[in-house]
Amino acid sequence: MMSNFLIPAAYAQSAGGGGAGSSLMSFLPFIGVFVIMYFLMIRPQQQKQKQLQNELKSLRRGDRIVTAGGIIGIVQKSRDDSQEIEVEIAPNVRVMVLRSTVTTVLTSTAKPANDVADAKK
């Protein structure tokens, strides 16, 4: 009686799988989740990082910035060939900070190229 109880389990273990199509179908949900995560999280973050890099390259005098430490200041000196910028954090208080520590550009005084034509009118 006990041996008949174990026979169906033995047949279930020896039964063949669905083949190569079955293994592909088992990975399809993981691939789908990765694609969704890429478009919802990774890609927008990469675009935001590129935008910040462009803003850091175009920092000019008078731009308001926020550093990684949470300090809000106004750019006083910025050279394209240097990684340091001079920021005024209070009246007559200026500090040197690295461009890489700037996390946000609040207001920018840089004008887009097409605004020059509008100013002449």
From TrEMBL:
Tagged with keyword Hydrolase: no
Main location: membrane
The keyword Amino-acid biosynthesis appears for this protein: no
Keywords: Cell membrane, Membrane, Protein transport, Translocation, Transmembrane, Transmembrane helix, Transport
Record's bilayer topology term: Single-pass membrane protein
Pfam families linked: YajC
Domain of life: Bacteria
InterPro entries: Preprotein_translocase_YajC
Membrane-spanning ranges: 24-42
Subcellular location per the Swiss-Prot or TrEMBL entry: Cell membrane
Protein family per UniProt: Belongs to the YajC family.
Subunit record text: Part of the SecDF-YidC-YajC translocase complex. The SecDF-YidC-YajC translocase forms a supercomplex with SecYEG, called the holo-translocon (HTL).
Described purpose of this protein according to its UniProt entry: The SecYEG-SecDF-YajC-YidC holo-translocon (HTL) protein secretase/insertase is a supercomplex required for protein secretion, insertion of proteins into membranes, and assembly of membrane protein complexes. While the SecYEG complex is essential for assembly of a number of proteins and complexes, the SecDF-YajC-YidC subcomplex facilitates these functions.
Protein name: Sec translocon accessory complex subunit YajC
